[in-house]
């Protein structure tokens, strides 16, 4: 104890007695890079964010790419070639739709400037085959016994290749009368009891307490038809004052490794941003020659409905 007190006293003395000193920082600026974000769902309209990065000292996150365009290939054949209007950063094409298994490659460019490329495969949704709920309780110190619903979400994990997932739960409620109707929609935070949420990438002592928002892989899924165990506060299954109907929807997202790694590193980057104890976390991107993410993804959902 004496040694510990001496150590603390020594540190405090350094802090209080240290002098002010001006330090000149030599911040190396980098040239602007082209940025693409696109998450492609099966049989859904194609959406694209296409911009340029800004200098680290800029107050803006991005700037429009000038004289920009792109070519897109489906299964190694030219699918479309587009020019983007001036100052357009995000756009949707209802007519561009892709199916499960399609291999998509994009080559985006700024005329008389850089060219970047990326590719992905449109993956299929993994179905939720059943949802089981049972009543259970969990003791929380200071608040007594708090009731939960123990839920088991069943899925069939494809064998022969690694797979990456994310589980979201959303609570929607409707209430009021004919003259004053309302609708609410909120993401439900749940207790991640299942071993799939404790994989080797997310369970070191350093990462304890980091919320990866339901992200997991299939390293611990055995057998292939598996029930993911979570706990949801019992009150989420009740009709609150003024509500006539509640729907709890379970969304099971099927991700590519690129999106899984992007989301995981993005969470870590935000969690440890500005901490003097950790090196900056580089957010994963799969854009050759640029920044961003180009990825296929899919989801399936199932719901529990509560009414009066």
Describe the overall structure:
The chain has about 300 residues and is mainly β. The protein is about 10% helix and about 45% strand. It is built from two helices and 16 strands. Strands 1, 2, 3, 6, 11, 12, 13, 15 and 16 form a nine-stranded mixed beta sheet that branches. Strands 5-4-7-8 form a four-stranded antiparallel beta sheet, with no helix packed on it. β7 and β8 form a beta hairpin.
- The number of helical runs is 2
N-C termini distance: 62 Å
Please mark out the parts with pLDDT under 50 across 5 or more consecutive residues, or reply none: 1-18, 23-29
Indicate the structural class. mainly beta
Report the helical percentage. Answer: 10-25%
> Over all CA atoms, what is the radius of gyration?
25 Å
The average pLDDT is 85
SSE arrangement, N to C: HEEEEEEEEEEEEEEEHE
Taken as a percent bin, the fraction of beta residues is over 45%
Q: Strand count, sense and closure of the main sheet?
A: 9 strands, mixed
What overall form do the CA principal axes indicate? Answer: globular
Structural features:
16 strands, 308 residues, 2 helices, mainly beta, 9-stranded mixed β-sheet, 4-stranded antiparallel β-sheet
How are the elements arranged and paired?
Blueprint: H1 2-17, E1 34-40, E2 46-53, E3 62-64, E4 68-74, E5 77-83, E6 90-93, E7 103-110, E8 115-121, E9 128-140, E10 144-156, E11 164-177, E12 180-187, E13 215-217, E14 225-233, E15 243-255, H2 257-271, E16 291-307
Parallel strand pairs: 1-16
Antiparallel strand pairs: 1-2, 2-3, 2-6, 4-5, 4-7, 7-8, 9-10, 10-14, 11-12, 11-13, 11-15, 15-16
């Amino acid at each position: 104890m004496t040694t510990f007190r001496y150590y603390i006293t020594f540190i405090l003395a350094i802090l209080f007695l240290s002098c002010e000193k001006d330090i000149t920082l030599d911040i190396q600026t980098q040239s602007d890079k082209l940025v693409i974000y696109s998450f492609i769902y099966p049989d859904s309209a194609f959406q694209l964010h296409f911009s340029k990065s800004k200098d680290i000292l800029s107050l803006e996150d991005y700037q429009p790419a000038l004289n920009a365009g792109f070519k897109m290939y489906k299964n190694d054949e030219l699918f479309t070639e587009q020019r983007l209007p001036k100052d357009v950063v995000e756009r949707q094409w209802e007519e561009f739709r892709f199916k499960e298994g399609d291999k998509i490659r994009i080559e985006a460019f700024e005329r008389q400037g850089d060219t970047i490329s990326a590719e992905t495969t449109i993956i299929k949704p993994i179905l939720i085959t059943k949802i089981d709920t049972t009543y259970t309780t969990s003791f929380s110190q200071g608040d007594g016994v708090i009731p939960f619903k123990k839920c088991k979400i069943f899925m069939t994990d494809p064998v022969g290749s690694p797979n990456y997932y994310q589980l979201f739960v959303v609570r929607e409620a409707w209430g009021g009368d004919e003259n004053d109707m309302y609708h609410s929609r909120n993401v439900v935070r749940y207790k991640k009891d299942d071993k799939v949420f404790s994989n080797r990438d997310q369970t070191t002592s350093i990462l304890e307490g980091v919320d990866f928002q339901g992200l997991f892989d299939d390293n611990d899924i055995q057998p292939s038809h598996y029930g993911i165990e979570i706990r949801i506060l019992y009150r989420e299954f009740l009709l609150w004052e003024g509500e006539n109907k509640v729907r709890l929807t379970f969304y099971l997202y099927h991700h590519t490794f690129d999106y899984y790694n992007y989301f995981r590193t993005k969470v870590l980057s935000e969690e440890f941003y500005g901490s003097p104890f950790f090196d900056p976390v580089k957010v994963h991107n799969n854009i050759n020659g640029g920044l961003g993410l180009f990825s296929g993804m899919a989801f399936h959902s199932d719901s529990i409905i509560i009414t009066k």
